[in-house]
Amino acid sequence: MEEIYIERNVVFAQTDKEYLTSDVYRPCEGEDLPAVILIHGGWYQSGSKEMYKEWGSYLAEAGFVAMAINYRLMTPTYSIYPEVMDDIRAAVNWLVSKSNEWNIEPQRLGLIGDSAGAHLAAQFSFQHATNASYKIRAVVGAYGIYDFEKMWHTSPETHTRLERFLGNAFSEAKEKYREASPMYRINEAVSHPIFDTSYFITWGETDKVVHPSQSESFIQKLEEANIETKKLAISDAGHFWFNILPGIRGGILKDYPNAEVAPQILKFLKENLCIQEVGNFSMKRIQELKKML
After folding, report:
1. 69-100 pLDDT tens trace
2. For the chain, what is the mean pLDDT?
3. What is the arrangement of strands in the sheet containing 19-27, beginning at the earlier edge strand?
4. At the top level of its lineage, which domain of life is listed (predicted)?
5. From the CB of residue 176, how many other CB atoms can be counted at a distance below 10 Å?
6. What mean pLDDT do residues 168-181 have?
């Protein structure tokens, strides 16, 4: 177990209403460190970076720089999409700006999110698949929202929150619902020759908050696009188990199912962030070129 630094309430951006803060967990030593941004859930209206305090320490002790972030939250009179994506981008850019100071390798970045945070992580990975300054090589999503159009049609109880998040009902902005859904961003991303992101998708099969079909359908689309995808369904778990949520039992990394899930996620991150060659290219493309020689 490595000794780590923890810096809390570090300001990384400012919105029209507030400063955005983060908690940063990092090893005391190391070169070319991989880094992971942690994005909390809470239906875009609640939650905070503190939900990831155990994950932050866990990752830093394993040799990763981990940055747990706050982002703008919606209210009954304040819709936040697409502006919330600027908050994720600001966090990534701020972390990249620390590369020399903290010995980070910006071509080895990952994103982890749960529920709404899983949506933001996946959406960002496809929107910024071709950035030259950094490379998102790994995304972990726990019981995420990946298809707003499907959610509108299958979960009427979410209509108010979806309207609040996106600013419109589905009938008024069908294209916006699709544009905001990672499910419909996959093909465009994989068409770019440097896209090379891998995904680890986990969910509970008894989830009554975000239906398991959100994860299952997303995985199917990823696999159809030949994207490296690992999946882990927890047969007897629902929602709210991936990280700490005040007032709800569980969420500690030693609790079930995290005690089983966390080591698998750590293995996935090491495989994709620690042994990758550096550079803004696709490892899959390199393999294709080697075959042509």
Report:
1. 999 999 999 999 999 999 999 999 999 999 99
2. 94
3. 4-14, 19-27, 65-69, 33-39, 104-114, 136-142, 198-204, 229-234
4. Bacteria
5. 17
6. 97
Report the DSSP pairing between strands 19-27 and 65-69: antiparallel
pLDDT at 290: 47
How many CB atoms within 10 Å of residue 5?
Answer: 12
Q: In this structure, how many other beta carbons lie within 10 angstroms of the beta carbon of residue 253?
A: 16
pLDDT, position 159: 98
Matching residue, tokens 């970076």: 49
Residues 6+ apart with CB under 8 A from 17: 72
Give the CA-trace dihedral at 169, 173, 176, 178, to 10 degrees: 80
CATH superfamily of 4-292: Alpha/Beta hydrolase fold, catalytic domain (3.40.50.1820)
Taking only the tens place, the pLDDT of each residue in 22-41 is: 999 999 999 999 999 999 99
Cis geometry, peptide bond prior to residue 82 (ω within 30 degrees of 0): yes
**HSE-up of residue 16 (Cα within 13 Å, Cβ side):** 7
What is the H or E stretch that residue 8 is in?
A: strand 4-14
Contact 35, 65 (CB under 8 A): yes
Residues in the chain: 293
Residue 289 reports pLDDT greater than 50: no
Q: Where are the domains positioned within the chain?
A: 4-292
List phi, psi (to 5°) of 14: -140, 135
The answer to whether the beta carbons of residues 112 and 43 sit under 8 Å apart is no
